[in-house]
Fold this protein.
Amino acid sequence: MRQHRTRVKICGVTCASDAQAAVAAGADAVGVVLADGPRSVSIDEALAALEVVPPFVGRVGVFVDAPLDEVRDAASRLRLSAVQLHGDEDPGYCREVGVSVIKAFKVGTGFAFPAIEPFRGSVAAVLLDTLVTGKDGGTGITFPWQSITDVPGWATLVIAGGLTPVNVGAAMNAMRPFGVDVSSGVEERPRHKDREKLRAFVAAVRAADEAAS
């Protein structure tokens, strides 16, 4: 039985109108990508996108192996509630960030949870994304949710990787996560969110919560 309201993070937001649409759809957090990639934004673009996000909705910045001072500065300027790290950042780096850390791990053949044990006590949540060679995330490709077992009790689990309004309920039923993270699955076209897909995604998450309660 799932005893909580699954948190929804809409990631890869590039402008204020999409941030507003994510909030209106019921997102619990909005994410901006501050690393190279198809949904990357500058600090100024992130400021413009996040300034419309109201209190009590999380503001998350996504980074990949960025210098620690750069992450700290961005977290301060953007008033981030958390940072999401998709690179090879180690536990010591995570402890020094200064805000809550969501550490991403890529799921491929042979993934096992002992790999995340060194991060115990250093991160607020663990995000599982699909391993795609040469990509740090946002691939639109799922991983086999049913293959992930023995989640350690200390790990606050967030799942990502190819989630859509159609499949997010199945992913939640398989893994019982604390939160779900979506980017390409709610896009109208690259860098632009689809209002109806945003509403449908959040509705699908709430329906899965209700079915499991």
Observations:
- Residues 7-212 form a domain with the TIM Barrel fold (CATH 3.20.20.70).
- Strands lie at 7-10, 29-33, 58-63, 82-85, 100-107, 125-130, 157-159, 179-182, 187-189, 192-193.
- The CA atoms of residues 93 and 187 lie 32 Å apart.
- The chain has one domain: 7-212.
